[in-house]
């Protein structure tokens, strides 16, 4: 029907079509200038229609501003279409159907506006696939706010847990320093007695340990990890730093340690 524009609704009373230059806006702020209408790329189905001015006014004041809200969701190479429906404010019982699409043209936007009777208007509107209604946007924002609040609460719990762990670590360090101060420190080659403090290499680092039991040639040492865990290590007596050591399971103590520890 039109040389320029998008096909209008069949059975229209009055129709307008246009091929606009389309510069896809990055956001809603630039949407109003996304379509550049050229006078020689527009046409009206009936230039003598008595309501043509009212028709043009509502297109400019209501239809196109509504279309502008959807343009940020449509790429120039998209073949998606939009279809918007408006009550004609100048013609009782009539509607205006605005249709449009870039038609994968990468630079143009094809439109038509049709004045039709109610029975010829589509039953519902068509939006770009990525478009979110105000209600959907509000729901998305509410969901995002809830997730952000839950994340903040989780991070706060983690921060508090780390603070508690650091406080416990400081308490353990103070307790360890006090215990070392009260104990007799023994070096390599020294004979060991219960309560002595020694340094044992375990889990890739030197650890503070305390003798819990001794025999003539062996000693049982409990060494402490930074996280507060304690483990048993059997060493030689006299004590030699890297000689003949073995880990002892607290739940399966050898008989000689059950009797002396």
Q: What is the strand content?
A: 25-35%
Spans with pLDDT under 50 lasting ≥5 residues? none
Assembly form of the protein = single chain
Global outline? rod-shaped
What's the CATH H-level homologous superfamily of the largest domain? PAS domain
Any idea how many domains?
A: 3
Total number of strands? 11
Continuous helix count: 3
CATH level-1 class of the largest domain: Alpha Beta
Class of secondary structure makeup: alpha+beta
Biggest sheet, open or closed, and with what strands and sense?
Answer: 6 strands, antiparallel
Share of helical residues: 25-40%
Q: What Rg, in angstroms, do the CA atoms define?
A: 41 Å
Average pLDDT reading: 90
The CATH topology label of the largest domain is: Beta-Lactamase
CATH architecture of the largest domain: 2-Layer Sandwich
Please provide the ordered H/E string of secondary-structure elements: EEEHEEEHEEEEEH
Distance between the termini: 102 Å
Please describe the structure with a list of short key phrases separated by commas or semicolons.
single chain; 261 residues; alpha+beta; Beta-Lactamase; six-stranded antiparallel β-sheet; five-stranded antiparallel β-sheet; rod-shaped
Task: Write up this protein.
- The chain has 261 residues and is of the alpha+beta class.
- The chain folds into three domains: 14-131, PAS domain (Beta-Lactamase); 133-182; 184-260.
- It has helices at 52-70, 134-182, 255-260, and strands at residues 14-22, 35-36, 42-44, 82-87, 94-101, 108-117, 197-202, 205-214, 218-224, 230-236, 246-248.
- Strands 1, 2, 3, 4, 5 and 6 form a six-stranded antiparallel sheet that branches.
- The longest helix is centred in the middle third of the chain and has 49 residues, at 134-182.
